[in-house]
Design a protein that fits this description.
The protein is mostly beta strands. Helices cover about 10% and strands about 45% of the residues. It has a single domain (about 35-125), classed as Jelly Rolls, CATH 2.60.120. It contains 1 helix and 8 strands; from the N terminus they run ββββββββα. A hairpin with a 2-residue loop joins strand 2 (about 10-15) and strand 3 (about 15-20).
Length: about 130
């Protein structure tokens, strides 16, 4: 789910402040602690080889985030692609790969246990 800033409902606007809120932006039921994550990614980075060996060869952790700059495209198990760009909010459900289309910086919030397993797997893959 990708949402441009302009598509997030304005709930309150007063001089000096605009408050936007998107309700029902994913569901954290069944997850415990959440981690806050900051990723800096270069164009061309593709998680496909790093996720080999995970269930479905995909990241099985959901993520909620914001693109500070750049552009990324996710692909799910069915092959559906979605692109997020600078200033987009996003929700990536479990079961995805990511390709960085343009140098990017993103902030994500993920279930700590589930995403730590994925990160540990990627670290092991890079160590050969």
């Amino acid at each position: 789910m990708r949402i441009a800033k302009e598509q997030v409902d304005v709930r309150m606007e007063i001089p000096g402040a605009v408050i936007r809120q998107r309700k029902d932006f994913g569901d954290v039921s069944g997850y415990s602690k959440i981690s806050g994550e900051y990723f800096t990614l270069a164009a061309g980075v593709d998680t496909t080889p790093l996720f080999q060996g995970l269930e479905g060869n995909l990241c099985q952790s959901p993520h909620w985030g914001f693109v500070l700059r750049g552009q990324l495209t996710t692909t799910d198990a069915a092959g559906k692609q979605e692109t997020v760009s600078t200033n987009d909010l996003f929700y990536w459900p479990p079961g995805h790969n990511v390709k960085v289309d343009a140098d990017a910086e993103i902030v994500m919030f993920s279930p700590q246990h589930e995403h730590s397993l994925v990160i540990d797997h990627m670290i092991a893959k890079t160590r050969g």
